[in-house]
Specification:
By secondary structure, the protein is an all-alpha fold. It has helices spanning about 5-20, 25-35, 40-65, 80-95, 100-115, 120-130. Helix 1 crosses helix 3 (about 40-65).
């Protein structure tokens, strides 16, 4: 299973937690089991994303808030875009994934799952964060 496919699964999980407002290790374990994820590196990545976003949620959300346009609030961001941004920021800031790779992957997820303006929005927020 390639990293893009695993990232997409991580996005689906994080999106689900945003919608349900429930974030637990048991939920992740069930997600992995339900999606029949057997690849050890995929499971490790999913756990890393889960733990990393959970432990750094406040800082990640603060980065998003600080890089929104003046009249935007975090509550206005769709759950899809929020999940994509959280994963990308985690990868850039805490996994030290090259920002070009993380932004490209995030934009691709936004094209697939977001509304028409999502790729531009995600790219703009992440580009602003990277400039800092």
């Amino acid at each position: 299973m390639n990293r893009s496919a695993v990232r997409e699964l991580a996005f689906k999980f994080i999106y689900g937690t945003e919608v349900q407002k429930e974030y637990s290790k048991e939920q992740l374990d069930l997600f992995i089991e339900d999606n029949e994820i057997k690849d050890e590196s995929a499971i490790n990545y999913m756990n890393s994303v889960f733990n990393g976003i959970e432990q750094n949620k406040t800082e990640i959300l603060d980065l998003i808030k600080a890089n929104l346009k003046k009249d935007w609030t975090i509550e206005r961001i769709s759950k899809v875009n929020l999940a994509i941004l959280e994963i990308a920021i985690y990868e850039i800031k805490y996994q030290e994934l090259p920002f070009k790779v993380a932004i490209n992957e995030a934009v691709e997820l936004a094209k697939k799952y977001g509304e028409e303006a999502a790729p531009l929005f995600v790219n703009g927020v992440l580009a602003s964060i990277v400039k800092e």
